[in-house]
Structures are given as C-alpha cells and as structure tokens.
Amino acid sequence: MERMGRGEPPGARSCSWPGLAGGVARRVVAMSEGPLRIAMISYYLPSGSKIGVGYQVHALASELVRQGHQVDVFSNCPPVDGATYGHHHIPLSGSMRTFRFALALRKVDFSSYDVLHAHGDDYWLWRRRVPRHVRTLHGSCFEEALHIRGAREKLRMVALGFSEVLASLVADVTVAVSPDTLRWTPWVRGVIPNGVDTARFHPRPGLQSEVPSILFVGTWGGRKRGAELARIFSEQVRPAVPSAELWMVTQDAPADVGPGIKVLGRLSDDELAEAYAKAWVFCLPSSYEGFGVPYAEAMASGLPVVATPNVGARYVTRGGRDAALTELEDLALPLVDLLQNPARREDLQGRGIVRAGAFSLDFVAAEYVRLYRPVT
Asked: Which candidate, 200, 232, 193, 214, places its Cα nearest to that of 314?
C-alpha cells in the first residue's frame, strides 16, 4: 500500500497556480498551519442511503471535526442526526439524480473553503474554486459494471466510470482507497484507505454469543450476495453445525429466509459494533468491493473474516493472510472450519486486529489533512 507522506504524492499537481487572486494565494500560505475549512461532496449519507461511501464520508467528516477542522458536507441526503459537521442539502427529484447532482454543484459557491474534498460527482468542477481540490475514488464503476446485473445498470455504471476518469483529471490530486482500484486510472498513484473508528469497533472479551454464529452486513440481492450466503448456510453449513445461526444485517431480505437465519434489519453504529463483538465469524461474499469497510470493522472488532477474493477483500486482508478467502462455491468449507476450530478462530482474530490498525480512522484523517495542506 502506498501511503501519503508529507510531500506531494506522485502525479499530483503543485499548489502554486498562476493567476491566483492575491487573497486566495494568501490562503494557500495560511493553510500550511491551523484549522482548515473543508467542503465535502457526497451524494450519499447514512441518513438517506445504505451505500457505504456515505457512511465513510460521515465518519471521516466527524473525525476531521474532532481534530479541530471545520467541515461542511454537500449532499442530496438529509442531515445525519447528531452530526458534528455542517450540512448543505442539495434537493433533487426524478430520474438521473446522480448526474444532475453533479450539475447542481456547479452553482455552489465554494470560495470560502480551503479544501474541496469530493467523494463523487465533481467531474464538472474544472474551474479553480478552492486552493485545494481532492478526489477520492472509492472503487471503480468500470469494475462494478463487470459484476452488476442488467444491461441498463451496466450502461449506467460505464457512464459513471467515465465521470470518475474526468473527475480524476479535474482534481488537483486524486487518491484511491485500494491499490487494485488504480488499474482503471493508472495515472493516479496515491492510496489512502477507508477508515474505521477503532474507538467503537474493537474487541470486547466476554460478549461472544454462546451460539456458533456468522454475521453478514450487506444487501440480500446484488453484488453483496446475501441470498447466496443464506443458501450456502442452509444447504451446507447448518447441516454440519446444527446449532449455527446466520445473522444478517440487511433490509431487503424476504420474509421467509429459512431455519437458523435471523434478519436484523438496519442497525445503528453501536448496535453493529455489539453484533461484531457477539458473532463468531464474519462473512461478506461480495462479487466486488472497492475497499470493503465491513471487513476492516470486523477485523478491528476481533472477528475472523471469511470473504470471496474481490478487489477490496484482497487488499484489506493482504491477499488472505489475515482472513480466509475462497470462491463462492467453496464458502462453506472455511465457515464450518472456523465455527468448529477455536484455534483457527484465535489465529485469524489476532492477525485481523493487527491488520485493522492500518485503517484506524484517526490515522486516515491525518493522512488526508497532510494531503489537504500545500507543500511549502
């Protein structure tokens, strides 16, 4: 993993731009120390969407505020209850909202901010608007187009993929959340991973359930493949471990999911942290993840991880050294083994806790702050 150092990341543009107004130029100098005024762009937030990018934006903005910076999030979603950062609602209705959100952003005056940090939809913002414009690629829509079902959705993902390419050229500096994501934008070379709040997600000895249990966080349908996990659990895991349960944090499961499967619906952060602490094994057999925050949350919580070898899972688990990676058709084997083998669970638990330290939210936020500040 390539980390951002105190200097400029490879491929980034200089912070000295010809033609900058005198006031803006003075702000570039002032940005080298003291609190920053940060505008974040994210169509998604946890208040209106289950998309993982929204949760990461909420967490990162909250941590930056905790570190003393001023943060405002511009979003189509309503404010998040209890958020410590500012919120600017950009209302939209009808179809093609993600594309129209990008057009609406062109009308926003960002001139009072030191930094514009976009987590999507900034591809029309090519004019200089702030001293520093940062873009995070949370994955690749081109990659997702290979795995998503339906011709219309594939076409939409390809269109969004081209918008990601344009955004990476518009921004002063672009980073991705995992190295393999960079293969679609090879001119981008910086990586800053997504962050996990290790103050919330951490081992809690003594809370583990007496029942052998597998935790899943994601959607029943689509690339998260919750339905496939439920089928494998019913057909192969439960017959081998009759007392086993599958706990599914999902909102789109059908009414009848089968014996031993519990649908937990949508959980708060604290409830999710408790679920990680109680379960024996975590499993997310997604066909594609740009990063996969639930993998890192589970590992930080001391929960052994079983995953399919998607882009994010390979990165977070160091190619399976810190988890069990297997193809979907062989998923039952490591699940049964971990439920029956305490020594194996303990080994992956220790490896996961150490690896999760690389994704601590305070560290990730500090990496971004170094990226926000100009090189002097």
From this structure: 193
Is the full-model pTM beyond 0.70? yes
Task: State the Cα angle at 110 between 107 and 113, rounded to 5°.
Answer: 175
Convert the pLDDT of each residue in 97-122 to its tens digit: 888 999 999 999 999 999 999 999 99
Which sequence spans correspond to the domains of the chain?
A: 37-195+361-372, 213-358
What gap in Å lies between CA 64 and CA 298, rounded to an integer?
Answer: 23
CATH number given to 213-358: 3.40.50.2000
Say if 37-195+361-372 and 213-358 have the same CATH topology.
Answer: yes
Contact by Cβ (8 Å): 179, 163? no
| Count of helices and strands (H, E) across the chain | 13, 13
Token reading at 322: 């810190």
Q: What is the largest CA-CA distance in the chain?
A: 72
Residue 359 has pLDDT above 80, yes or no: yes
Q: Residue 146 corresponds to which tokens in the numbers above?
A: 């290979």
For 186, the 3-state DSSP assignment is: coil
**Is CATH 3.40.50.720 what the domain over 37-195+361-372 is classified as, yes or no?**
no
User: Mean of the per-residue pLDDT values for the chain?
Assistant: 90
